[in-house]
Design a protein that fits this description.
By secondary structure, this protein is of the alpha/beta class. It folds into two domains: about 1-65, 2,3-Dihydroxybiphenyl 1,2-Dioxygenase, domain 1 (Roll), CATH 3.10.180.10; about 80-158, Roll (2,3-Dihydroxybiphenyl 1,2-Dioxygenase, domain 1), CATH 3.10.180.10. It is built from three helices and eight strands, in the order E-H-E-E-E-H-E-H-E-E-E. The chain has helices at about 20-30, 80, 105-115, and strands spanning about 10-15, 35-40, 45-50, 55-60, 95-100, 120-125, 135-145, 150-155. It has a four-stranded mixed beta sheet, covered by helices on one side. It has a four-stranded mixed beta sheet with strand order 5-8-7-6, covered by helices on one side. Strand 3 and strand 4 (about 55-60) form a beta hairpin. The radius of gyration is 17 Å and the shape is globular. The protein starts with 10 loop residues before the first strand and ends with a strand.
Length: about 160
């Protein structure tokens, strides 16, 4: 018996600079539903998007939050050009959304058509238990308006 019965992620909470721009991107560009909006003291907000399977991606909006520090607490915005994926200890590197493998190229093309800069589809190879070095995940990356690195990822083997 496991000590804790974890059942996935309830929500991942990030911080945005502009709530309106963030809601616009996640609802109109990615097609997510805004499912909750909580008022916080001091004019802040905590709002949630449905990402499927009962899970949510949440954001805080704090009117007086400090500016972002790309390349330290988040991915550097020049990552597509430099390939540098290093972020600081305790930081969040990226958020990967699970998508059907057969839809990966279609979704990439849809984001490109909406003006979103995306990477090519990348085949991530790993060392499986049988040492086959086969492709584990196919995915591509893109940034949200706050410079949060997002990934559409498809598992291609168990």
């Amino acid at each position: 018996m496991k000590e804790f019965q974890l059942q996935g992620i309830n929500h991942l909470a990030l911080v945005c600079k502009d709530m309106e721009i963030t809601v616009d991107f996640y609802t109109k560009t990615l097609g997510l539903s805004l499912i909750e909006n909580i008022e916080l003291p001091g004019g802040g907000k905590h709002f949630f998007f449905d990402i499927g399977n009962g899970d949510a991606l949440a954001f805080f909006y704090f009117p007086n939050a400090p500016e972002a520090v790309p390349g330290v607490a988040s991915m550097s915005l020049d990552m597509f050009k430099t390939g540098n994926i290093v972020t600081a200890h305790g930081s969040m590197n990226h958020v990967a959304f699970n998508v059907p493998v057969e839809k990966l190229e279609e979704y990439r093309n849809k984001l490109v058509a909406k003006g979103v800069e995306v990477t090519p589809v990348i085949q991530h190879k790993g060392d499986s238990k049988d040492n086959s070095k086969s492709v584990f995940i196919s995915s591509f990356y893109f940034f949200d308006p706050d410079g949060i690195l997002l990934e559409f990822a498809s598992s291609v083997r168990e």
